[in-house]
TrEMBL record:
Any one GO cellular component localisation term in the record: cytosol
Protein name: Translation initiation factor IF-2
Biased composition (Polar residues): 85-94
UniProt source species: Congzhengia minquanensis
Family note: Belongs to the TRAFAC class translation factor GTPase superfamily. Classic translation factor GTPase family. IF-2 subfamily.
GTP-binding in keyword set: yes
Gene that this polypeptide is encoded by: infB
Residues the record lists as binding GTP: 263-270, 309-313, 363-366
Molecular function per GO: GTP binding; GTPase activity; translation initiation factor activity
Entry's localization field: Cytoplasm
Pfam families to which the protein is assigned, alphabetical: EF-G_D2, GTP_EFTU, GTP_EFTU_D2, IF-2, IF2_N
Chain residue ranges for the region called G-domain: 257-405
Keywords of this entry: Cytoplasm, GTP-binding, Initiation factor, Nucleotide-binding, Protein biosynthesis
Length: 752
């Protein structure tokens, strides 16, 4: 067998004899000099020690534990340079003890496309490449090239065996993303999945091999297996393409506020927008005519305000439901002669849910019977305390029609804007939101967009939802051609290849090829989503989401038949809040469940609870397509019981009703001895003789029971399909009126 001397080994490993001798002494071997031949046992120990040092990545403290720092086995040129510039090299590779759990390691997701590193910021690349990469590769090369050990079969096998042993025993480094499937975690930890599941159970987490656990749980498990944890951040094509970095405070500049006008029907929203537009419009040299581009800007005391053109909370919440936050401030218009009405309350709740500032415009003060104090009183009942009553809600008394106090209102909007400290960085690539878009016969797809950060320029390459293109022309709100638009500026853009949707985010990008790739994938995903389901909370999966740490609040929209029940339900449900779950009633009102309720629920991840009310057709359809959970009850007690059970994850397998169809009452007849017979028309589905039925009047359930008879002409029938007329009577119930709706339903067991 070839003898290996200390100096030879040192040379092979690019170390020095002194270091090897020191190491041997540390392991308790007899003192040697650089010419000493090494015994097999000594070689084994040294080899293990040194290969460990080569292979080991920079250790990361897991939960404050500081693993032993690897001793550098080689001092390459780069290391030496680093040592010169850093007097304490140990600090370079060993993270500070107070660093958060797991170091953030960025990884380029190269699974989907070719990554063009020149498109990524230098800063990001620095982070992408671990500092020890070059050193490691050099070391590994050294061991391979011309090594004496290479010719030494015995040593080679030894190395292999030791490496395998290390894999089995030594600490490994695992990269864990924000969420990881149990199966994947076990693979990365190189342990059987059953072991991982067992450990999870000991932590009180029940998860199967295909279920995912979050980073914190996964790292606890990994640490338990003695692994070193690194946080994995997967950068997708979109992350790289849009490069949505945060601006440094010194890059930020003030931007003007973006305002929406909300309020009850006929309280003067449109009149107010018109009044503002006509008195404060920013003049252009050409004296351009105001164009409708979904938003416009006005000037107030040398400052500007951007107004969204579409009044009402529906459009606002529809955008929010798509993830877009475009508004900073809502002007809540309340007619002084009318007071707070149902849509005013909706608007307040929608604005609060979106966390936008509210300025109240008490309108129509020119009218007789106008009573601003009464409005203020009513506002307090909805959590808006006027400033002059010691609160922080600014109220301005105006007349949109007579153009009174409009200037004051705008100044107050600016005041609220100042308090919100609105800033953006005009010196970066633009991003923002599509306000509206259409296909213009002559000009092709036209999109009105609001720039929210950066500056948009002619020629920019843009991705907006699933649309892509180069900006061919830009027009401002006066129809004037402009070359660039900064933060809070609405513009109309031409040059997209298809019509995006309102609420889509747009980004200016550099890499056209990657952009096209991203757009293709989005189209594919949108297609899949249309087929698949949405990820909104339902009572059934609520507890799972709480357990997974995804949510802590159970948001609820309540609709009931009378005001008394609304209040009672609201209070009882809010009382269910405990340490883990807070129950928030984000909106409540009297009457049928409408589409705007579903939109609010969808945007705020809420469920809808209805008492003796029904969803109208639009609401039912949109709840169905958006996956919003509507729970309908007759008794408050049942609702409380069910929601409490859901909060504890103890929802029983339940029976859920399945609506079979609807029939509209067209005529009623009183037949003595029989009761009221109704002539009706089946509008959808089928009405079946033996289903249960409920009678609904203006969205409110008047009665629930069974059919006493179902006839076509004179014959009794089992079922009447949509599009046919029929006659029916309801068991022990005669108060049937024209215009009522009969809803047929069955109770079916729901698998959970
Ligand atoms: N006297 C008086 N009438 C007003 C004032 N503001 C609006 N109106 C009238 O109130 C009515 C409704 O005004 P709109 O601006 O259309 O109200 P809106 O809130 O936009 O209504 P919808 O778009 O239907 O929701 C119109 O007849 C206006 O002329 C005001 O300050 N004073």
């Amino acid at each position: 067998m070839t003898k290996v001397r200390v100096h030879e080994l040192a040379k092979e490993l690019d170390s020095n004899s002194k270091e090897i001798i020191g190491l041997m002494a540390g392991f308790g071997f007899p003192t040697r000099n650089h010419m000493s031949a090494l015994e097999q046992e000594e070689l084994d120990v040294l080899f293990e020690r040194l290969t460990q040092a080569y292979d080991k990545k920079v250790p990361v403290p897991v939960f404050g534990k500081q693993p032993e720092a690897p001793k550098p086995a080689k001092k390459g040129k780069k290391d030496k340079q680093a040592a010169e510039s850093n007097p304490n090299p140990a600090q370079e590779s060993t993270p500070a003890a107070d660093e958060p759990i797991g170091r953030k390691v960025r990884h380029v997701d190269t699974r989907q496309t070719v990554v063009e590193l020149n498109k990524i910021d230098d800063e990001v690349i620095e982070e992408l490449v671990p500092t020890n990469v070059s050193d490691d590769s050099v070391k590994k090369q050294k061991l391979k090239k011309g090594s004496k050990f290479r010719d030494n079969n015995q040593m080679k096998n030894k190395a292999k065996a030791q490496k395998e042993e290390k894999v089995n025993k030594g600490p490994i480094t695992v990269k864990i993303p924000d969420e990881i499937a149990v199966g994947e975690l076990s693979e990365r930890l190189e342990v059987p999945a059953t072991e991982v599941i067992k450990k999870l159970m000991m932590l009180g987490v029940m998860a199967s091999i295909s279920q995912s656990v979050d980073f914190d749980t996964a790292s606890l498990i990994a640490e338990d297996f003695g692994a070193i944890v690194e946080r994995e951040i997967i950068l997708t094509d979109e992350d790289i393409l849009f490069n949505d970095f945060e601006d440094a405070p010194e890059q930020l500049e003030d931007r003007s506020p973006v305002v929406v006008v909300m309020g009850h029907v006929d309280h003067g929203k449109t009149s107010l927008l018109d009044a503002i537009r006509s008195t404060n419009v920013i003049e252009t040299e050409a004296g351009g005519i105001t164009q409708h581009i979904g938003a416009y800007r006005v000037r107030v005391n040398e400052r500007k305000i951007t107004f969204l053109d579409t009044p009402g909370h529906e459009a606002f919440t529809a955008m929010r439901a798509r993830g877009a936050q475009v508004t900073d401030i809502a002007i809540l218009v309340v007619a002084a002669d009318d007071g707070i009405m149902p849509q005013t309350v909706e608007a307040i709740n929608h604005a609060k849910a979106a966390n936008v500032g509210i300025v109240v415009a008490i309108n129509k003060i020119d009218k007789e019977g106008a009573n601003p104090d009464r409005i203020k009183q009513e506002l307090t009942e909805h959590g808006l305390i006027p400033e002059d009553w010691g609160g922080d809600t600014i109220c301005v008394e105006i007349s949109a029609k007579k153009r009174m106090n409009i200037e004051d209102l705008l100044e107050m909007v600016l005041l609220v804007a100042d308090m919100r400290d609105l800033k953006a960085n005009p010196n970066r690539k633009a991003k923002g939101t599509v306000i509206e878009a259409k296909l213009d016969k002559g000009r092709g797809p036209v999109a009105s967009v609001l720039v929210q950060n950066g500056t948009l320029k002619i020629g920019d390459t843009v991705v907006a939802g699933t649309a892509f293109g180069h900006i061919r022309a830009m027009l401002d709100d006066k129809g004037k051609k402009i070359k660039k638009a900064g933060p809070s500026v609405p513009v109309e853009i031409l040059g997209l290849d298809e019509v995006p949707e309102g609420g889509d985010e747009f980004y200016v990008v550099d890499d056209e090829r990657m952009a096209k790739n991203v757009v293709e994938k989005r189209k594919q995903k949108a297609k899949e989503e249309r087929i698949g389901s949405h990820n909104v909370v339902t009572l059934d999966d609520f507890f799972d989401k709480v357990k997974e740490g995804q949510i802590k609040d159970l948001n609820i929209v309540i609709k009931a038949d009378v005001n008394g029940s609304v209040e009672a339900v609201k209070q009882s449900l809010e009382k269910l809040s405990n340490e883990e779950v807070r129950v928030n009633v984000i909106h409540s009102g009297v009457g049928a469940i409408r589409e705007s309720d579903v939109m609010l629920a969808y945007a705020s991840n809420a469920i809808i609870v209805g008492f003796n009310v029904r969803p109208d057709m639009g609401a039912a359809a949109s709840a169905e397509s958006q996956g919003v959970d509507i729970r309908l009850y007759r008794v408050i007690y049942t609702a409380i019981e069910e929601i409490e059970a859901a909060m504890k994850g103890m929802l029983e397998p339940t029976f859920r009703e399945q609506v079979t169809g609807h029939a509209e009452i067209r005529q009623t007849f009183k037949v003595s001895g029989v009761g009221t017979i109704a002539g009706c028309y089946v509008t959808d589905g089928t009405i079946t003789r033996n289903t249960q039925v409920r009678l609904v009047r203006d969205g409110i359930v008047v009665h629930e029971g069974e059919l006493a008879s179902l006839k076509r002409f004179k014959d009794d029938v089992k079922e009447v399909a949509s599009g046919y007329e029929c006659g029916l009577s309801i068991e022990k119930f005669n108060d049937i009126k024209e215009g009522d709706v009969v809803e047929g339903f069955n109770m079916v067991e729901v698998e959970r």
